[in-house]
Amino acid sequence: MAELPRKVKEAFGALKRRSKQSIEIKSINKHFYVYHSTSGWDRERKKAVKISTYLGRIKEDGTFAEVRARRQRSGKQTVGQLVDKIDMLSAELAQARDKLTVLQQQRPAEVAYEGTHKSSLKYESTILKALSMNGRISMPMLGKMLGLSQTAAMHQAKRLERAYSIKYIAEIDVQKLGYLSFLIAVKFVEDRPSRDKLRSILESEPRIQLVMQTQSDYDLLAYVLAKSNTEAIHLVIALRMQLLEYKSKWNMWPLDSDYGTVPLREVFIDMLKDSMLKREYVLLKELIKDGRKEFSEIDKKYGFDAGRSQYSYHKLRESGLLKRVTITIQNLPIKYTALISASIIDEEKFRKGRGEMVRSIIEDTETPINKYLLVEDTAAPDGIIFFLPVFGGDDLDKVVENLNGLRLGMEFTTTIVTNLLIGEFCCRRFDNMHSEQQAVLEKEYGSEIPKKIDYEETGRAKKEARSRSDIRGLPLENASGM
Predict the structure, then answer these.
(1) CA-CA-CA-CA torsion for 327, 329, 334, 336, nearest 10 degrees?
(2) To which H or E segment does residue 221 belong?
(3) Which of 13, 231, 322, 418 has a CA between 20 and 30 Å from the CA of residue 443?
(4) pLDDT band for position 460 (50/70/90)?
């Protein structure tokens, strides 16, 4: 590329230093266009493709004209003005979060969009579902789902990211790593250890992914991973040895994951370092922290040849070990998380009512996230554990009442999570048409097979995005990530 004019070069350098994304500049007919540049995978041609999003242009005097959604005019700003605007928006976001605390009892959509045009609300479910199914989805593909340009789709997605504090994480199939899931329950008989002491002991064990303090028959519930029942038992013994001064009762249940996912801790991924290829281990380690991190940044950080991280990503996806990059929503007016433990006491009734129970798991809700965060089968006692978010005072009672109404031959008990000591739940809007429950309904109960959306890139997005671009005929190389 020819040498950039001094003011253009300075303005681009300032943008590049402040941008969290990988950006590049192109000179076309003495105009200077700025793009966010990343890469994607063409499933049809089995090769990497370059992905670019047009961000705006820099004039020769150093002013930056930022691209806007179609209904807005592009404003010309200096780099300094752009930085001031970012600072102002950050302050407004902080005020909005304070307001959210006061508005906890309102519906989540109303809270997130307080003061926002209601036309934005119609896109919410589609965007959250798309990001939950493919956190690295391109903006042209998302725009096609919404009936919007890629720029307008990006603005809508960014609005939701800010409103809900969306975090992108890797969803990993731990069974393909040789691990099983267990739930450990602890009841302290007399004195209880302090929260800090518990956290110190439990955090040091990388196989523990989630620890909940609860109001129930138990004080603690821990979601752990182990390669066998024997390993899980030894883990329980080791933990008890560190708490010998406290009288306590311990129980453990093997789990069979049926719906949802638990975000993995970085220390667990560190355990895999010697059992995986370095670049695959590194990729998982980076993606559980930031599922949208640029592959080029990972290559550069670890000294890999260009394209190696992206290659490893698609190999892990093809193997099924990396199910997807998904999201967890961190800013929701959830009063608390609850567990419903369901034990089968009449096998015949359970078999008769099982189909309706499966349908109830994947029924739609008016909240931004799914009805259940996690559903796990238990072997002893024979039953199911439902993890669910509670937004209103009587929501939990209503769910239990509905389950009782299905006449499943099950006995239900409830547990309220009062605090998370370690880890987090994954709050998202998974497309339940792709769930195991939907597959069961189709295969075992003859349910109609619905049309399912393919959230993966197909290799055709480039042509479609170019034909739909609203950037006044500017060259758009390909589909785009945010």
Answers:
(1) 50
(2) strand 220-226
(3) 322
(4) very low
Widest CA span in the chain: 79
What residue ranges define each of the domains in the chain, with the CATH number in brackets?
175-262+331-444 (3.30.70.3460)
First to last CA, the chain: 25
Which of 32-41, 439-448, 457-466 is the most confident on average? 439-448
* Cβ atoms of residues 240 and 250 within 8 Å: yes
- In angstroms, what is the C-alpha Rg of the chain? 25
- Report the 10 Å Cβ neighbour count for 15: 19
For the chain, give the number of residues: 482
Which residues, other chains included, contact 336 with Cβ-Cβ below 8 Å and sequence gap of 6+?
A: 390, 416, 417, 418
Mean pLDDT along residues 9-19: 80
Cα(456)–Cα(427) distance, rounded to whole angstroms?
21
Residue in the structure block whose two tokens are 């943008």: 15
> What one-character DSSP code corresponds to residue 393?
T
**Structure confidence at residue 171 (pLDDT):** 98
Cα atoms in the Cβ-side hemisphere of radius 13 Å centred on 387? 25
Report residue 380 as tokens: 């002893």
- Tell me what percent of the chain is helix, strand and coil, each rounded to the nearest 5: 40, 25, 35
Per-residue pLDDT tens over the stretch 358-395:
999 999 998 999 999 999 999 877 899 999 999 988 89
Look at residue 459 and tell me whether its pLDDT is greater than 50: no
Of residues 250 and 50, which shows the higher confidence score? 250
Type of residue numbered 311: Y
Q: Is the dihedral of CA 225, 226, 230, 231 positive or negative?
A: negative
**What mean pLDDT comes out for the span 314-327?**
96
- What residue ranges in 216-335 does DSSP mark as E strands? 220-226, 248-260, 322-329
The residue written with tokens 């099983």 in the block is 180
Q: Which long-range contacts (CB under 8 A, 24 or more apart) does 126-129 make?
A: 127/156, 127/157, 127/160, 128/160, 128/164, 128/327, 128/329, 128/368, 128/369, 128/428, 128/429, 129/429, 129/430, 129/431
Which of 257, 160, 280, 275 has the alpha carbon at shortest distance from 210? Answer: 257
Single out the residue of 370, 363, 428 nearest to residue 160, CA to CA: 428
pLDDT of 253 > 50? The answer is: yes
Prediction pTM value? 0.76
Amino acid at 163: A
Confidence band (pLDDT; 50, 70, 90) for 33? confident
Q: How far is Cα 188 from Cα 18, in angstroms, rounded to an integer?
A: 51
72: three-class secondary structure by DSSP:
coil
